[in-house]
Amino acid sequence: MAVSIPSITEDVARERFIMYASGYCCYNNAPAKDGVITNMQAFNTYRYRLETFTESRSTEWATKPYEGEPADFYTQTAPRPWEIPVTGPSLFQNHEENIKVPYTSSNKPCHTCSASGKMPCHECNGSGTKACWVCNGSGRRGGDSPCSQCNERGKENCSKCHGNGTKECETCKGKRQLLTYINLKVEWKNNVEDYVVEQNSGLEVNNLSDVTGKTLFKNAQYMLYPVYGFPDPSLSQASDRLVREHQAKYSQNSRILQQQQTIELIPITKVTYKWKGGIHVYYIYGNEHQVKVPDYPATCCCSIM
After folding, report:
1. What are the start-end ranges of the E strands in the chain?
2. Phi-psi region of 279 (alpha: psi -120 to 50; beta: other; left: phi over 0)
3. Within a 13 Å sphere around the CA of 27, how many CA atoms are in the beta-carbon half?
4. What's the rounded Cα separation, in Å, for the pair 75 and 66?
5. Across residues 124-144, what is the average pLDDT?
6. Is 65 helix (H, G, I), strand (E, B) or coil?
7. Distance, C-alpha 261 to centroid of its chain
8. How far apart are CA 246 and CA 129, in angstroms?
9. For 7, what's the count of Cα atoms within 13 Å in the CB-facing half-sphere?
């Protein structure tokens, strides 16, 4: 499989370098503008990506304020988690749904407020008043002058509870009762794992995670077979390993809905340039022409006051 990507021009390399340097307030852009490019070397590499789209389901007891819903506990046999019909998202899209399991709900008095719908205000300890902030509770200010803020009472109504001494119960929202039911949590997750063929350019592999390349191969089905016979044997070996690992791992506690594998050719160009007698390098990579500069030669210490 002889596949190549058109090399970038020196003009593109310089333009991207200047844009990169201009994005940093502490970088002098002289190296990017005046540096002399002496060599441009391609280190294009392959990336294999395996995606395994899964669905998992779990249940737990839950409560919510009672809104008058009919209690259906034991009116029929509750369905099991995988018996409940749920509409999922598009393939390979992460998503989560919470569903009330039918025939599991009952209502009960709120345990937090003892079915009163109210709780003592923590701001005023249930008294409904607080010491006046102007006179600090003395009723006087500036010696013998009466405090006009509190009319000499030394107290004023609590602003949090409006002088009532109580606030609405956070658990039942003032309804006094709770609906108890079994909640079904359904999670769709796209589990992604990459393998990048070693390219010996000096650019770290983790820099490639946010860029794209030229798609050479892509297929999706319920359960994949590994890619065999690829020109680079390490990629075929990685495909075989990852497919087996994913199918074993994600079938234990979830259901595999679909798998997808992709092979991309990612462009990487190592640019060597000379500036003020020194030799330096930077990298341009991905379809997006991202720039990575290991050691920019003209920086200054700057701070924002």
Report:
1. 36-42, 45-65, 95-100, 106-109, 118-120, 129-131, 140-141, 145-146, 155-157, 166-168, 177-196, 214-221, 255-266, 268-275, 278-285, 290-292
2. beta
3. 17
4. 19
5. 85
6. strand
7. 23
8. 62
9. 11
Alpha carbon separation from 294 to 21, 280, 284 (Å, rounded): 13, 9, 12
Give, in order, the Cα–Cα distances in Å from 93 to each of 53, 54, 186, 245, 264. 8, 10, 13, 21, 21
Nearest to 184 by CA among 118, 85, 255, 265: 85
Distance, in Å, from the CA atom of 183 to the CA atom of 198, rounded to the nearest integer, reads 47
- Are the beta carbons of 226 and 48 closer than 8 angstroms? no
The closest alpha carbon to 33, from 298, 301, 290, 278, belongs to: 298
Amino acid at the residue 166? T
Residue boundaries of the structural domains of the chain: 10-51+188-292
Determine the average pLDDT of the residues in 233-246.
97
DSSP result, 170-190: TTTTT-SEEEEEEEEEEEEEE
pLDDT at residue 5 tops 70: no
CB 293 within 8 A of CB 204: no
Whether the full predicted model's pTM is greater than 0.85, yes or no, is no
Smallest CA-to-CA distance from 34 within 244, 215, 273, 281 is with: 273
Backbone phi and psi for residue 288, each to the nearest 5 degrees, phi listed first:
-80, -5
Closest by alpha carbon to 196, among 231, 239, 226, 227? 239
Kindly report, residue by residue over 59-97, the tens digit of the pLDDT.
999 999 999 998 999 889 999 999 999 999 999 999 999
d(CA 130, CA 158): 6
**Residue 135: CA atoms inside 13 Å, Cβ hemisphere, count?**
20
Q: In a 3-state reduction of DSSP, which class is residue 293?
A: coil
